[in-house]
Amino acid sequence: MKMALMALATLGATSLAVSQTRPAPDMRFIERLDADGDGVLSQDEVAAARQRLFARLDRDGDDAIDDREIEALRDAVMDRAVALQARLGRAWRRMDTNGDGRVSAEEFRARTILFDVADRDGDGRLSSAEIAFMRDLILGGRG
Question: Which residue from 19, 39, 18 is spatially nearest to 28, judged by alpha carbons?
Fold first, then answer.
């Protein structure tokens, strides 16, 4: 009993330490925009981030975002969606190990489809960027 309690306490302390060393998604967002590193976002820092976003969207630099630039953004989003659909289809076919066109519960448990789709660079590890991408994809940007 003592050993079990000690193991649980150790596991709890380890989990707490890990959670404290890895910033939460909202903290990563703040860190990216926090130019002076004070841990909070000022109105000026948010305005600067919006200006950088505007500059990225204003591809021709004419200080306006027009229909052509919005269409280019839509195309880029669609290209990413099509690529993700293709990856998902390939991952699904790989799960069908016996090739019968169906994925059994056993085949499904044997593969980690979401991991495989999330592992965008195929290195067998999920980076924080890959996890954030999947979270945004699944939650529709509601983080």
Answer: 39
